[in-house]
Amino acid sequence: MDTFATALPALGEAWALILQPMVLGYLVLGVVMGLAVGVFPGLGGIAGLSLLLPFMFGMDPVLGLALMIGMVAVVPTSDTFASVLMGIPGSSASQATVLDGFPLAKKGQAARALSAAFTSSLFGGLVGAFFLTLFILVARPIVLAFGLPEMLMITVLGLSMVAVLAGRVALKGLAAAGLGMMIGTIGEADAGGSLRMATYDIPYLTDGLKLVIVGLGIFAVPEIVSLLRQDRSIAKDAKLGAGWGAGVKDWVANKWLSVRCSLIGVLVGVIPGLGGSVVDWIAYGHAVQTTKDKSNFGKGEIRGVIGPESSNNAKEGGGLVPTLLFGIPGSGSMAIFIGAIALLGSGDIEVGPSMLRDNLDITYSIVWLLALANVVGTLLCIAASGGIAKLTTVRFTYLAPFLFMLISFAAFQSGQNFEDLLALFVIGLIGIFLRRFDWSRPAFLIGFVLSNPVEKFSNQAFQIASFRFRKSFEEGMDYLFSPIVIVLIIVTVVSVVLGIRQAKSIMAEGDVQSGSKRAPVVFLLVIAGYLVTALINASLIPDYNMTDKIVPLVIGGIALACCLVMLVQMMLRPETDVIFADKEIAGEDADAPFGLWSTLAWFAGLIVATWFVGFILALLGFLTAFLRVRAGASWGRTLLLTACGIAMMCVMAGALNRDFPPGLLQDAVDLPWPLK
Amino acid sequence: MTIKNLVSSVALTTLLAAPALAEVDFSGKTIEWVIPFSETGGSAKWANFFAPLLAEELPGNPTVVVKFMPGAGSTKGANWFQEQEHEDGTLLFGTSGSTQFPYLLGDPRVRYEYSDWTPVMASGTGGVAYLNPEDGAKFDGTANNLKDIDFIYGSQGATRLDLVPLLAWEMLGMNVEPVFGIKGRGDGRLMFERGEATIDYQTSSSYLGAAADLVAQGKAVPMMTWGALDADGNIVRDPTFPEMPTFKEVCEATEGCETSGEAWDAWKAFFVAGFPVQKIAFLPAGTPDEVRDTYAAAFDAVRNRADFAEIASKRVGKYDVFVGESARAATDAGTSVSSGAKDFVTNWLKEAYGVSLN
């Protein structure tokens, strides 16, 4: 009871700290900056916070916190714009939102999807704050109860969502997830440092591929290319249906789903080391499993938006627990946040175990500033959503060049290598074919995201478990099968069983027709070929580095087995079977006026030109040529739009102090920024 | 600290520095301080702490911005810096132990050469190793009673800074099994708190921030520090923890552990690179002396601020800051290792952990 007796006055002090006009002013300023940064895919809170860092030195702590929290809190809110409107996952927190949000936009219901998403975000943020106010006092032992086996099981639970999202042919979904995991293992292994499908001669590969690039490549590139080929607006017939009021009503109708997903968000967010990567998938899976009529998922089911969006803002609150209590950042932006707090004031706020004891009022200020920032951010976003949704009625050919510009810039920011652009293109190509042949892209992405945690936690848990088993059998069993692990195993099994039953009705890619055998077989053989290569590559790792080879061997083996079974099925079944699904046979893609390769060539052109003359000059040529030739705009319009695009890029990069990809020209001659 | 203090110390240093360095002026310029790590690491914290202070002290008060160029464990950024040449003195580069270790170990990705660069400031930290209470009770200033115990340690990798503690424990005859693949020392501490790991170490500032709390609650027992370097390059007690024995003392007291010979030399070489000379700020190859001296004077002014010890200890830990000639000497000590020591470590990494760097 003692703790609660000190908590109440601290809570009062926290509110007194927050409710000052200056503090609220800084909070709103932070929120506006956060929204501006968050709208651009791939930048996120890290870029924004780094921008604020120079001002934090010696700043009044509450003001500095208000500014930073305002910014961090709304990034997962505003990146919803890109996910819903363009099908671009702005960050790992909004991957699952793309699945149903974008189809809604295509139906002309972008405003509805956005406002439902924002209302859910708001609610999730508030639930998170309420929950934390109490929970943070007792959190320490609970957080410590989550050891490696527990974290492994949560990751496996996230992975089990593949069952729900596998699509019509379960084997294909499994193989897609396996392929995603194998792509996730590329690079230097965490444990022993062995190289997998990489070489020191290509340093880019040793770091592995970044989530931003894979997310953009798998979801954004195929959608952009497909829409561009069809030469239409995102919203079919360029009409907007339901407005933002409908979205709020949707949320009211599904408020209990929102409550449950918010709690999932906080709880998973609390566990350090998992971060946001699994939360939205678990929430999406939960939304699917608790919906009676599952036929609309993947085609624009509003519950598929409300679930993940409720969880991702709640997760931010949960993520504060490890950050504040243990001084262990739950994400990249939290790491900067911890560093920045040390710069504030006289530097006596120390994030870590002493935080609760010495600075409980500050702790509560942080929790409730986060909640307030959510409220302000959401209201601004809802107010803007009706207008921004109109973008979906614009002829897509006018949007596409700017989207190519944005995703290239976002990809480059992840590693600041020219190779980032190449990787985006290659992954984009994989995404295009996964989509065409109805291989589950969400399953691929879940596999990729969870590849590293699965490998890390299973290796480490195995090592510690074998250590305990050496002491005594009992101790080992106690370690591996704690009550938490057993509960998680049951949840996982139930979710897989239910998921497999339901998967057939969830068609993320719509009803894809089958027709010819040749193309799907060729694609399958290419995938199997890659898996074989990766398997051989992994088997060459010496045995003393077993930790680095065991996961690629097992996962690659399973994925390859799936491919082989499918190959046999393909030989036996008629060409009308669902296993031969191919979007080029019938439907929107097949009827599109433009071909795949000629459309993709534009994107390739931008990348090749960047290689020679650097990004900005390449962009100048690309925008002009695209708008004039492909979109058929008048010269006046072409030049105006090109100037706007370049100006936008320069303002954004200039404000955030970012560079553009340089080319051969920049190697030869010194040019002033932004050309350098 | 008051504004008055600040103004007077700035004024004083400007007066002192001005006559000798009249020719270098950064008015209206922007200095880029490139860090070969991501925004989230310890080096980012270090540069972000020094950047505004440096800006105040450099002639003309330029803007100092910190830029990040992560990749390939910092070798990407360092390889890039190797290609840079002096232009107008507005490029600064920061390295850390994670840049020095691959260089010392002959990592194939390393295409940079420390001796080409111009060091202007170097700073370091210390480290403290601690045990769980049960095994800690058996620690009596020697590791004699710890030799039959199997320890578990959450490690970032044997070729990283963790090489120093792992080799130290090995030299003491302790059986420490590293669990590789954690992302930072904070994760290691959490593993220790959960009881999964039974031994751990933290750098000085993180020890004070979090692990000392565990010691106060009886959940951890401090074992030893890695020590600090005196002016002659000898290992002495860490000034932050004068009551704690150093590894050197524990080693001397422990049967079978020698403070001479190739194992000791190797340990010491990597300890110096990883701790007392952990972070170094460089100007590119070909930097003229007056530019170097301008930076050295500015960093000197920073470390002589009346409030420096106070603000530094809270934000980046109590670092010894070397500037000018002593930065050069520290850099030499931190980036050179005898071929005997290198071979010893390479062999040991191969035999103990199967790590090969080729």
UniProtKB/TrEMBL annotation, chain A:
Q: Name one Pfam family in it.
A: TctA
Per the UniProt record, which residue ranges are transmembrane?
26-53, 65-90, 110-139, 151-171, 209-228, 324-346, 366-389, 396-415, 479-500, 520-538, 550-572, 600-627, 639-656
This protein's record includes keyword Transit peptide: no
Q: Which UniProt keywords apply?
A: Membrane, Transmembrane, Transmembrane helix
Keyword Magnesium among UniProt keywords? no
Q: Which residues form the DUF112 domain?
A: 24-445
* Name by which UniProt lists this protein: Tricarboxylate transporter
Automatic annotation (TrEMBL), chain B:
Q: Which UniProt keywords apply?
A: Signal
Highest taxon of the lineage: Bacteria
The coiled-coil regions, if any, are: none
InterPro entries (alphabetical): BUG (IPR005064), Bug_dom1 (IPR042100)
Q: Where is the signal peptide?
A: 1-22
Is-annotated flag, keyword Transcription regulation? no
Family that this chain belongs to: Belongs to the UPF0065 (bug) family.
This chain belongs to the protein called Tricarboxylate transporter
Give the organism, scientific name: Aliishimia ponticola
Q: What is the taxonomic lineage of the source species? A: Bacteria, Pseudomonadati, Pseudomonadota, Alphaproteobacteria, Rhodobacterales
